[in-house]
Amino acid sequence: MATGSSGRCEFEFQPFPVLLKYDCPHIEQRPYTLPASARKVNGHQPPCHECHQTEENWVCLQQDCNLIGCSRYRLKHMLDHHSATNHSICLSLSDHSIYCYVCEEYIDHSNFRQLHSQLIGEYGDQTFAA
Ligand SMILES: [Zn+2]
Ligand SMILES: [Zn+2]
Ligand SMILES: [Zn+2]
What we know:
By secondary structure, the chain is an alpha+beta fold. The chain has helices at 77-85, 113-123; strands at residues 57-60, 68-70, 89-92, 98-100, 105-107. The protein has a domain at 36-123: Herpes Virus-1. The chain is globular. One of its GO terms (molecular function) is zinc ion binding.
């Protein structure tokens, strides 16, 4: 049944059916790393800078910013942060997706490789642990 050894499988591990944009022009030309502000606090996500909730938060990946804000499904403080600053790229601490507010798309890039592995080290693999 095998159709060859070079099958395309890069999307198999995406937990949600979104198309990733690989050519977001807002990605900086540097290897991204997990900001210190994104580390767990007492086993939880670090709190939103504004409302201090510890679920569904995002971290701004703008260099030297790294602010923590809650998602648009909470009190959308990360969206407010983007509107106020134009910082465009942020990372979900819940599902590890990376989003560009300017492109309004989920994005990925080889510059995020180190960030992804640091995230798994900090938060574990999020795929349905029993
Ligand atoms: Zn973009
Ligand atoms: Zn908030
Ligand atoms: Zn920011």
